[in-house]
Design brief:
The chain is α/β, with parallel strands linked by helices. The chain has 2 domains: 2-218, 4-Layer Sandwich (Metallo-beta-lactamase, Chain A); 228-296. Helices cover 33% and strands 24% of the residues. The chain has helices spanning 41-53, 68-71, 74-77, 90-101, 191-203, 219-242, 248-258, 261-264, 277-290; strands at residues 2-8, 11-16, 22-28, 31-35, 60-62, 83-87, 119-121, 124-128, 131-134, 144-148, 157-161, 166-170, 180-182, 208-211, 272-274. Strands 1-2-3-4-5-6-7 form a 7-stranded mixed sheet, with helices on one face. A 6-stranded mixed sheet has the order 9-8-10-11-12-14, with no helix packed on it. Helix 5 runs antiparallel to helix 6 (219-242) and helix 7 (248-258) crosses helix 9. The longest helix is centred in the last third of the chain and has 24 residues, at 219-242.
Length: 297
């Protein structure tokens, strides 16, 4: 099942009951733009039916990143006139995910699988005068801005709507409610890049942040995530400096024994962690990173 909510006059949010994964629908200058495309066929069918019932041909699919739960729906939604927009590292991100879960099997790219991307960029992609401008100098007047951030994954990029002060953050941000904490997740990339990516959000004129999963959040959530990440990074480096670990597996054991997510995340009293394995995967990533020689990190 997919829940639909309007977040601005021209922007809708679709949220699946499967892992609360999000897709956004932005209508701008007569163009219809989908932000991410989900993965479960029933959810993707619901989005397609929504568009067809309202006679809304899909002009663009903008993928915040190419993990399967955000891009597999491209195959079912991309029409002949639809163009897909993604960062130039998109295929590497999908291949790495595929290799982890199904080693030895290639990522499902190409015809009849996940369609090829039509527009790629390295740093940014701005909507100006009815078309996408790729990797130009920042254009403050651009009413749609795709900005590469990395952090959760190497290709992760934001879609920023300056006029509405809304930002689609992909999985650099995950949801929060009154009972749960959703930790920022950097296993696929790097904690320092995620910190910088979150600070980038704080530098923008943003009031509402749409996470990759769950309900929209506000700037306070970003501040809390930065606090967790910086505390985690500092504590991990102290352990690395003071402990004689033998390899990544040993260091991971040291980190797990000493770094409790609830102690690192602010305002956590009385709450539980949504998807607690995220912290464990963050610790694994740190162990892999800090067990390597400094020049290889």
């Amino acid at each position: 099942m997919v829940d639909t909510q309007r977040i601005t006059d021209n922007t809708l949010l679709f949220t699946s009951d499967a892992m609360l994964v999000n897709a956004g629908l932005v209508m701008h200058e007569g163009r219809v733009i989908l932000v991410d495309s989900m993965v479960r066929p029933t959810d993707v069918h619901m989005i397609r039916n929504f568009l067809e019932e309202r006679n809304l041909p899909l002009d663009y699919i903008v993928n915040t990143h190419w993990h399967s739960d955000h891009c597999y729906g491209n195959r079912m939604l991309k029409a002949e006139e639809t163009q897909c927009v993604a960062h130039q590292l998109h295929s590497e991100t999908l291949a790495r995910e595929r290799n982890m879960f199904k080693p030895g099997k290639p990522a499902p790219l190409g015809r009849d699988r996940v369609p090829a991307v039509d527009i790629t960029f390295e740093h940014r992609c701005d909507w100006v005068m009815g078309q996408w401008q790729v990797d130009s100098a920042p254009l403050p007047a651009a009413e749609l801005q795709i900005i590469h951030a990395a952090g959760h994954s190497p290709d992760l990029s934001y879609l920023y709507l300056p006029r509405d002060k809304v930002l689609f953050a992909g999985d650099n941000v995950l949801y929060k409610d009154n009972e749960h904490i959703a930790l920022p997740y950097f296993y696929w990339d790097d904690e320092e890049r995620l910190i910088q990516g979150l600070k980038m959000i704080m530098e923008l004129d943003v009031e509402l942040i749409v996470p990759g999963h769950g309900d929209p959040v506000y700037r306070l959530k970003i501040e809390e995530d930065i606090s967790y990440l910086t505390a985690l990074q500092k504590a991990a480096l102290e352990l690395v400096k003071n402990d004689s670990f033998t390899d990544a597996a040993h260091l991971e054991q040291v980190l797990v024994a000493n770094l409790d997510a609830m102690e690192l995340y602010p305002d956590s009293e009385g709450k539980s962690i949504w998807q607690p394995q995220v912290h464990a995967m963050n610790l694994r990533r740190l162990a892999l990173k800090y067990s390597r020689p400094m020049e290889a990190r």
